[in-house]
Design a protein that fits this description.
Order of helices and strands: EEEHEHEHEHEHEHEEEEEH
Structural class: alpha/beta
Largest sheet: 9 strands, mixed
CATH architecture: 3-Layer(aba) Sandwich
Number of domains: 1
C-alpha cells in the first residue's frame, strides 16, 4: 500500500506572552488530511530560516496558508507599510525563497489568501495594500463581528476563465461563489502567472504558474473552510493531493 504524501505547511511566528510560537490554523491541516489525502507537516519559520532544499527534500507538496499578517511591502517595492498592518518577517524570509525553489524543482504548491499574495510577490508581482481604498474595487474584508459561518460564507462570484484548470473543478461552470476575507490583493501580476479567476470588480482571485512542471495554483479566497461541503474545493484539494502523491512515488522510487 502506498504511503500518504507529506505536505508541508509553513507556520506563522506569533508571540504568546514573551515567547514566540509557530502556528497553523487547524482548518488548513484538516483540509490537507481530509481532501488531499495527505499528511500535514508544520514547518517552523525560524529567525534563521531552515535550508530551502532540505525542506523540499522532506515533503511532497507545500500548502501556503492564510494569516492575519501580510507580506512586508519592501519585498515588492511599494513604500512603507500602511499603519496598523500586521507583518511576519520570519514567515516572509522562509516562504518567499521556498516558493521560487519549489516551482523550480516541480514541488506541488497550493497557495491560499496570504499564500496567494506571497506567491505573486515571490515571482515578481506587487500588491494593493488596501484594496478597499482603491477606486473601482469593492471592500473584500469580512465583518469580524459576525459569526464565523457568516464571515466565511460565500459573498461574491468569481468568473473562471475558459480553457484553464478551474472550470473542470467546477464541473464546467463559468463562475462559482466564494468567501472574501482580505485587505490586500494582486496589483501587478507576476510574470509567468496565468489568471484563472476574477472577482466582479476585476480583482484577480485565482492563478496558476504557466510553465510549472507540477501543480502550482493560488486562490485569494478560503477553500479550506468546511472543505468537504464544497465540491469545487474538494476537486482542487484532490488534484493537489494527487500531484503530491505522484511526487511521493517518484521520491520513494529514487530512494529504493
Amino acid at each position: 500500500m502506498a504511503s500518504l504524501p507529506v505536505i508541508g505547511i509553513p507556520a506563522d511566528r506569533r508571540m504568546v506572552g514573551p515567547h514566540p510560537f509557530h502556528m497553523v490554523g487547524e482548518k488548513y491541516a484538516h483540509a490537507v488530511a481530509r481532501a488531499s489525502h495527505a499528511l500535514p507537516l508544520l514547518i517552523p519559520v525560524l529567525p534563521e530560516p531552515l535550508a530551502v532544499d532540505d525542506l523540499l527534500d522532506s515533503v511532497d507538496g507545500l500548502l501556503l496558508p492564510g494569516s492575519p499578517s501580510n507580506v512586508e511591502p519592501r519585498h515588492y517595492e511599494d513604500g512603507p507599510s500602511e499603519p496598523g498592518t500586521l507583518h511576519d518577517p520570519e514567515r516572509d524570509a522562509t516562504t518567499l525563497p521556498l516558493i521560487r525553489r519549489a516551482i523550480e524543482r516541480g514541488v506541488p504548491l497550493l497557495a491560499i489568501c496570504r499564500g496567494f499574495q506571497e506567491m505573486n510577490v515571490a515571482l515578481g508581482g506587487s500588491l494593493w495594500q488596501r484594496v478597499h481604498e482603491v477606486p473601482g474595487h469593492r471592500d473584500h474584508r469580512e465583518d469580524k463581528q459576525a459569526p464565523l459561518d457568516v464571515q466565511y460564507g460565500p459573498v461574491h462570484e468569481v468568473h473562471l476563465l475558459e480553457g484553464g484548470w478551474f472550470r473542470p473543478w467546477a464541473a464546467g461552470a463559468e463562475s462559482i461563489r466564494v468567501n472574501s476575507l482580505h485587505w490586500q490583493g494582486v496589483k501587478r501580476l507576476a510574470p509567468g502567472l496565468l489568471i484563472e479567476a476574477t472577482a466582479p470588480d476585476g480583482l484577480i482571485e485565482g492563478f496558476r504558474v504557466a510553465e510549472s512542471a507540477a501543480f502550482a495554483v493560488g486562490v485569494q479566497w478560503h477553500p479550506e473552510w468546511r472543505v468537504m461541503a464544497n465540491p469545487f474545493s474538494v476537486a482542487m484539494f484532490e488534484a493537489f493531493g494527487a500531484a503530491a502523491q505522484q511526487r511521493a512515488a517518484r521520491r520513494h522510487a529514487t530512494r529504493g
